[in-house]
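Example 3.
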Amino acid sequence: MENPQSAIRNPQSSHRVDYYPLIAIFSFWLTSAFLPSLIVVRPYITILGVVTIPALVCIFLAFRIVYRQHKMKGKEQGARGRE
Amino acid sequence: MEKIKTEEKRLLIINFGILGVLVFASTILHHFFPGVLSVPSHQGIPFYDFPSLLMQDLIPIGLSYICFVHSLKYLGPWQASIFLSGSFVFTGLEESMWILAGRFSGIQETYYFSRAFLWFFETPVMACLGWYFIAYSCVYISSLILKNRGLWTRAICGGLIAMNIDLWVDPVQTSPEWKTWFWLAPDRINIFSIPLSNFIGWFLLIFLFALVFEKLPVLEKRYGQTWATLRFYGILLLLEVGILIFFGIYGTFAMKYIPLTNLTLGGI
């Protein structure tokens, strides 16, 4: 019943395109919350950003997974090249 | 193979053609005939000059573009386009429905967006595109970190990530320095002075869209691309009505039984 072609389900790649959705969501966090909060005069509004730590952790974990996938693929290709 | 490609091309042209016409008409209506939809005055709204409006539209267009490039690579043109236009229409209609229902029903005003250059009904295109890349990114992230879990778990996680980010975005963007949108009536429960229903809405839109989108290949196999597209939009429209009913029931229940509450942090 699940989408077999979905990148959302099966992210496999060896290209920087894999980082694009992560860059998009982090840029959204940056341009819609973090940077705008710096010019808001209300006290504690920037500190309020701590509530988004779970989302940031998820973005970081996803980033690390993609990085490791690429690194592993690079190693495999390197080993094949040596053979 | 050739037939599929032609059908796909035709569908994409129709899909984005209709979307383009709606955006063009809504933008003209919003800027040049504001009386038709009783568009609120933009007096006192910061960053309302043309370069700022354009800039605010360009950022989400850029972020959507990179997500679209990613989806093109993995999903192909048809699915990638359906994800883009589907999430755009789904969330744009949902937001516009709430805004216009609040404005014209006479029961209770809800909220409205104060500035944008391009519009889709009464929702800025930047918000619709925002929903697109947020939905895409959040579900992608949840798929990476919950690789071996089922669809429901991943969709729930995607919705929660989006909602979590909005916990900060909403208080910042509704502050007097930005005034990107206005909440006109408080909910019974508010978090950082933002109605709880807003956060529930963020979760529901991403969660439901992720669930429906995963069924798209099944629909395609069974009905072909044209009918699958129509059915997909049909399901989304039914969900819109479902969400409206859900919030109607929630609102009635909350008004009756829940005392006015605002959960704050440092007075926000």
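Residues 50-104 of chain B form the longest helix (55 residues). Helices of chain B lie at 2-32, 50-104, 125-145, 151-173, 196-214, 216-257.
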